[in-house]
Amino acid sequence: MRIGITIGLHQENESLWNNGIKQNAVYLAEALKHCPSVASVHLVNTTAVAITAALPWDRARWPTVAFEQAKDNLDVLIELGGQVSADQTAYLKTQGCRLISYCCGFEYVHVMQSILFNRPLWGYDLFVNQRYDAIWMVPQVATNSQSYFETLRRRPAQVVPFVWDPIFVNQRSQGFDYHGEYRPRAAGAKRLTVMEPNNDIVKFCMYPVFIAEEAYRQRPQDIEIMQVTNAERLARESKEFIAVMNQLDIVRQHKAVFLGRYDTPQFLSEMTDVVISHQIENALNYFYFDVCWQGYPLVHNAYMCSDLGYYYEGNSVQNGCRQLLEVLTAHDQGWQDYLARQRQVLGRYLPGCPEVTAEYERLLTALLQQAIV
After folding, report:
1. I want to staple 17 with a disulfide (CB 3.0 to 4.6 A). Which of 127, 200, 263, 268 is the partner?
2. Quick check: helix, strand or coil at residue 299?
3. Domains and CATH numbers, the chain
4. How far apart are CA 189 and CA 255, in angstroms?
5. pTM for this predicted structure
6. Going by C-beta distance under 8 Å and a sequence separation of 6 or more, which residues neighbour residue 338?
7. Per DSSP, what are the bridge partners of residue 199?
8. From CA 118, how far away is CA 371, in angstroms rounded?
9. Sign of the dihedral through C-alpha 86, 90, 92, 93
10. What is residue 150's predicted lDDT score, i.e. its pLDDT?
């Protein structure tokens, strides 16, 4: 079986760290290569951006081509990071190619916010493809977006395994001390890091900041600084954000900084001892896995991976604080066991995991047994 996975490049040297879509495409490609029925997997760019050596991944390992080069040599095209048009879809169907919509974003939330808060996505020019042979979605988006996918695309959607690989975090971390892995520092006080994107309600920094604040009220001597990335604009322009932050001791006592954008591996290696996070309807994500693979203590509320890091339930800042205090008290005494445990748990998401391979093989087999839509 010859498989393509779409990406939508905007620059020839586009960063892997500006969102998870390109990483997702690469991880899925790596997972599918383990399936017995798969002969080849290509990344297929759907934009006019040229494919050059500037791409931040190994094109020998993950061959990357333009749609025009791929369209006559595919049995399955998985639309993931770049959309194919109605005409392109029609052509693929004449070649006997199946088309899968692979959904890895919380699209219903994006659309709600676009409509309610004047954040344009497509205006009147919305193309909804009606000719998918299957809709695959990662588990964390099903609760909020499954019905959105199914009604608009007129097909049932099914949950597929979430896949992750440490290859990029390892690659980016090679030049850092200890290859970017966590090591206890001699100084007792810890540097707390909050790295939410702050683009929408799904991953926003306020509750992680509140968790740090509650811990600071109890153990100020154990907290050197709280660093909130992707928040510089909020701290300069949002009067409401500024007003709330100014209620907090950790801010008033100059133990907090609000910074711009950083890539995860560098910030972890050079500036972080503990990561605090919070999510709504995004209970699996690559950021958590990158953090835990490198052995950093992660205080989080992602129930789908509650056996990773230091888990607190729901929106309980107090429970998050208790977990943070546990990190401050005891983490460094068992950091090596923690690192080993995180990597063992993350094994269930890796390409080549027998359960992951078997499920994708089953899905592909079922797809080929269907008539082409």
Report:
1. 263
2. strand
3. 2-165+350-369 (3.40.50.11190), 167-349 (3.40.50.2000)
4. 12
5. 0.94
6. 295, 297, 331
7. none
8. 41
9. positive
10. 97
